[in-house]
Amino acid sequence: MPVTTAALAVALGTPTTLASAAGDPPADLGYAVEDGLYPDRANVLALTGADLIEGDGNITVTPCDGPYQIKVWAVKLKTGDSRICFAAPGRTGYLKVNIPRAYRIETEGRDVKAGVSISGTTEELTIARDTSMGFGEADLSDPKQAVLLQLRVTGASTPPGVSADITGLSFSGRLNIGDIKHCSATLIDPQWVLSAKSCFTDQPFESNTLLAGPPKDKTTVALGRPAINLMGGHASDIVELVPHPDHDLVMGRLATPATNIAPAVLSTTGPVAGQKLTVPAFGRTQTEWVPTSRHDGAFTTGTVEASGFSLTPQNPNETTVCQGDAGAPAVRQVDYRTFALVGIVSRSTFANCLGSSIETLGGAHSTRVDDLHSWFQFVRAQSTGWKTQALVQSGSGLYQATRLNDASWTGFQDVQNKASSLNGIRASSATGMNGDTHVVAISNNAGLYHTIRKQDGTWSPFGNVFDVAGELGNLTSVTTAGIGFDLHILAVADGKAFHAVRKQDGNWTRFRDISNGRTNITAAAMTAVSGELQTGIVSNGKLYHSVRKANDTWTAWGDVSGQANQASPIGPITSVSAATGSDEAHFVIATDNGTRQYHTIRSANGSWAPFGDLKSVLGTVSAKSVAATHVNGEVQVAVTTSDNKLLHTIRHTDRTWDTPVPVALQGLPAGPGQLTMTATWNG
Prior knowledge:
- By secondary structure, the protein is mainly beta.
- The protein has seven helices and 48 strands.
- The model is unreliable at 1-26 (pLDDT under 50).
């Protein structure tokens, strides 16, 4: 019997009256990933004779007596007139089909490519917009049976409009994974989106595990667009995935950072039962397979557990979370157009969703994010670009944190837990080389050890430097610098300065005394400038300077105060650090038991600037330790203070200084002590 328009409309998902009685959700909720399988496939096949298998949602069957973009003729269709029509409203679209004995395709306003199998040979036909093409049995001179295998829209005639997302939810977006899979996503950093790990696993119920690295299928994200076909917002490939080890969460790194969209702000407090939440998502609705517009669902928090919480639609007649909603943010409104990210949508009963037989209002599940800040920060620290690494001695250990692109800091992590235990660390120095961070640490029992923090955040075990470079006694301080791929170490021991080099191949030279008559040395600092080591040592409370040339010779130690023509007296120096600045060397010191801090520059011509008092920059502080490093063309300076603060500032190339910003000391077991900083490049 011919299929009527009314019958086809039912098959396509025209809304009907649905039960709204609330009930307990099933124990097993489905992962809310849009897998691309055509909704109600069996019913459409029974009604039309066309097997619509899977697609991206942009090509759907529609009655031929209304608007359509693609019309297909086939001998065995059950539609009475041997025709089946498809709507293709977007600029692109894909649909895998099996339509036996197809023989003609007509297009309206769309360029279409069609895959057909003619007598067992597969070929691709190109049908220009507003034309038709016959094939197979339409060729009367050589009629052959053909099977239509796929349709692909390659261009639409109507240009998109302009994005006008004024809701404050522009951090939400849609993920396109391969040809047919879809999920939602949330921008939480200019370079990172957060989504559901299940979006990228083939069978999440069997194994929701995912290896870190590039996605298996080409993956793109569109952000800041309330309708996908609009211009504006931001679109980018996803080039790296970092899955959470335990939760249904994954972070995806954007090839092109989204600098024009404000990322979502993570909530610092957990969800509360009965709380009203909004879920902006791009998954199915009651009537649409893959909507082109975002839908902002109103939900209420249900049961709250340690790792997640349930969601219930505020309107019982609306759909719950549907396929394609996985990865969507569940947000709490805190002010006008201001939201806090509470969770990431994961699973659902799919009640009232297109293609679902479940009509009783069911539940959905979201993964909590309020207690995962340290994981987010750890992943964000892997973003491309320059990073500042800070290592702080605290209690009996050493702790590392990273300054991110947005000037925030990760929490501090115990280096001994990441590398290996030295039974306590009292001082360290760090140098960034080739994307890695080399750390040399002095243990509480005066041993000297070396470890490497890789770009991916993993650490090598500590290696004993004395075993490979010779043993030193009464070790008090250490400083490092990199030239090429060689790590230079200057260790202060027995009141003298000793130099060694870790070569690129991992071999070490032996320590040799470079004190050259200087005695009572207590501290040292080095930085590499134009292939040479600009080196400062504190001898008898005063700063002396030498240069290690490329041929491994050292200049005589010169009194910096005298060379800088310092008019005002500089008291005994207690801490020193050095940083490169173009072809200059910057030295920062603390004097008079840390109560005064100064900055000076050695220029390429060998001249010195007078010591500049940093009180106007840092204020009145008493510094336990000073640190300086060169990051992306600028000099960053930090101090730890006697009142247990860590202050950070930047000296710009125009010689202006930022107002110091206190660094959060999350993760430190006690007040901050000795400090070192370095720059690393993630690429």
